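hey so i finally got around to running the thing on that chain from the lab meeting. sorry it took forever, my laptop kept dying and i had to restart like 3 times. anyway pasting the input first so we r on the same page abt which one it is
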Amino acid sequence: MPRYRPFGQRTRGRPIQAAVIPFDNAIKVQLLQDFNDAVKTLTWRECTGLAFTLNRHRNTVERWRYSRQVPNAVTMLEVIDWVRRGKPTRTVYQRQIRKLM
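ok and heres what got predicted. didnt touch it at all, straight out
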């Protein structure tokens, strides 16, 4: 018999309290579906611009596009909102990039 057991396998001692949380995956599934629909419409240039703005690598955005990886919920909402606004972009020149950094 092992000396220590994982948290969920305690059989003796005082009873523990467990939180009662109704898990509703419908909201999460809808958010993920909206995000996937939004990023599948991105072109290469839009992926590059989005990666620069979010300070991520372009391959990361490509992984989002092909549903290989998922960002956190805040980033998902920002990207969905950006796509719904019509994907506004601006040209940033090299001398401006040096000033931003």
